[in-house]
Amino acid sequence: MTSKDLEAALGDAEDAFQRKPQNPEVGLEHVSDPAVLQLRKSCRLLDAAGFLLDRNGHFTVIIESSFVAIERSIQFYVEEKGYDVAGQRHTEVYELGVRAGLFSRDVAERLEELWIENRSESYYRTGVAGEYRARTIYGLAVQLHDEIVQLTRTRDCLCE
Fold it and tell me: What pTM was computed for the model?
């Protein structure tokens, strides 16, 4: 892979991420609070996953988006409670959820196990995503997000 076209595309991508976004995503463009940014990213991920479910396909993306939305929702909650979450690995957010009183250790362990066994199986390894799996993980992500929005009484959620 050394074509001039590939190198040009790589250079364009590198340059794009060095620039300030010219057409930022609506709802994320003026957010300065890092916790609110995580919440709104979760809203957008859930919206995209719901859109794809309605189109009856792309189950791998729905599963990935739902797992990331779960992480972003939990991250919002723990940051709202004053915990520093910078630099954590994917599964560390579940422990932070326990420390912040969001859920029990048992729930955290089940969420972590679900992530380890299924997210990486569907996304990185040989697992094949299917509709039932996509719908159930999406349902879990929406339920957790909605409960966090209710618990925090935030008005910063973008979900309708």
Answer: 0.87
